Amino acid sequence: MTSRIRTLVLSVAAAALVVPLTALPSSARPAAPADTPPRTGFEESDGAEWTSLEREQEFLAAVERGGDRVAVSTIGTTKQGRPLNLVELGNKRSVTSVLLICSQHGDEPSGREACLTTVRDLAYPKDRATKRFLDRTSVLVVPTANPDGRAADTRGNSDGVDINRDHIALKTAEGRTMAALTRDREPDIIYDLHEYGATPPYYDKDLFDLWPRNLNTSSRVHKEAQTLSEAYVRPAARAGDHSIGTYGIWTDPVTGDPIKQTAGDGQERILRNASGVKHSVGLLIESRVDPRSEAEENDPALNQRRRVDSQLDSLKGLFGYTDERRAQIAAATALSRAAGLLDRGAVYVGGADNEPATPEDTVENPPCGYRLDAAQYADVKDELALHGVKALPTRGDTAFVPLRQSQRKLIPLLLDGRATYHLTVGQPVATC
């Protein structure tokens, strides 16, 4: 990995001069000089404590005040009233955009800490390569995608719902917020940060990653996602002395051959797959929670620092990929969005890139569209709008959803009874 890539996520030496004050209430902490980069609660405790939600709000406010070209906004609110924050960095007019979704699962905090650190480091760029990267890139970050779950240290949100299984139904405030963000900003890349529990000796690497497996992902977008993984994220992780492999695939510890698949399929309701279907180069990253050594067992802070460091090292690969393959990324995502307007080709309601679709999973000749009666349309029109699917109202409060639109391959997943997670069963219309 080149030195230019390694500098894209910076370590801020000046932060070492800040005296840890986590024991003091926020009102008693002296304000740092405007040009001093703020530190997360995790950094102030040297990895002993995760950054609290209150501290996150203070940290983001400080970054926005003192950072360069950074804006923090609230784009949604959880059921328990906590804000869903969006941080925007870099050039908002850039044709290249990257979205980081951090800690959809509230009990997986290392990705969130990496995202907060990255926000700060990009907001206080010091070297020429990072400044040039930001001149050419729009970076969007949702630092805590599940604040209620983080507050309770639970996988699900306050209703116990796994947000990463809600990217089709959009029943949660968190899922709806992310869908609207994806629809409105059309990110070229969506990077989803998680953690996992190891199963030694078959499944115990420091990191795992995986691209969209859903067969409705365009071939160009699929290729770019694999390139992001194999040519950038994995080398960056290894350069940081972290082992890495393919998420959901157990391997023989001696030969490295696959033994069985335990996760990582093509179901469309997971963000990694929904990203690909919606034309973004998606990638899931998972860091290992379990201690890797006796030293980590005896020192939880050491374990937690390793988890965050592995996420940060993988992000170096993401930013290097974004910087070096702008033309290929733009072509892949633009052509994917335009392909639906041609209204050609099969649509798949099952299968994955490593599991060929059966005839039952394949809609070889998709209909012109789906007709919804009044009750169906009333029930799903908000979700269709959040997904960016255009519906044409017709007489009697009914609607027609044509396939000839950008989200062509998503529509059958929402409205066809053969799709596992459909919202409703629309009436197929053969000809227009």
UniProtKB/TrEMBL annotation:
<protein>
    <submittedName>
        <fullName>Carboxypeptidase</fullName>
    </submittedName>
</protein>
<feature type="compositionally biased region" description="Low complexity">
    <location>
        <begin position="27"/>
        <end position="39"/>
    </location>
</feature>
<keyword id="KW-0378">Hydrolase</keyword>
<dbReference type="GO" id="GO:0004181">
    <property type="term" value="F:metallocarboxypeptidase activity"/>
</dbReference>
<keyword id="KW-0482">Metalloprotease</keyword>
<dbReference type="GO" id="GO:0008270">
    <property type="term" value="F:zinc ion binding"/>
</dbReference>
<keyword id="KW-0862">Zinc</keyword>
<dbReference type="Pfam" id="PF00246">
    <property type="entry name" value="Peptidase_M14"/>
</dbReference>
<comment type="similarity">
    <text>Belongs to the peptidase M14 family.</text>
</comment>
<dbReference type="InterPro" id="IPR000834">
    <property type="entry name" value="Peptidase_M14"/>
</dbReference>
<feature type="domain" description="Peptidase M14">
    <location>
        <begin position="49"/>
        <end position="308"/>
    </location>
</feature>
<feature type="signal peptide">
    <location>
        <begin position="1"/>
        <end position="28"/>
    </location>
</feature>
<keyword id="KW-0121">Carboxypeptidase</keyword>
<feature type="region of interest" description="Disordered">
    <location>
        <begin position="288"/>
        <end position="307"/>
    </location>
</feature>
<keyword id="KW-0732">Signal</keyword>
<dbReference type="GO" id="GO:0005615">
    <property type="term" value="C:extracellular space"/>
</dbReference>
<keyword id="KW-0645">Protease</keyword>
<dbReference type="GO" id="GO:0006508">
    <property type="term" value="P:proteolysis"/>
</dbReference>
<feature type="active site" description="Proton donor/acceptor">
    <location>
        <position position="286"/>
    </location>
</feature>
<feature type="region of interest" description="Disordered">
    <location>
        <begin position="27"/>
        <end position="48"/>
    </location>
</feature>
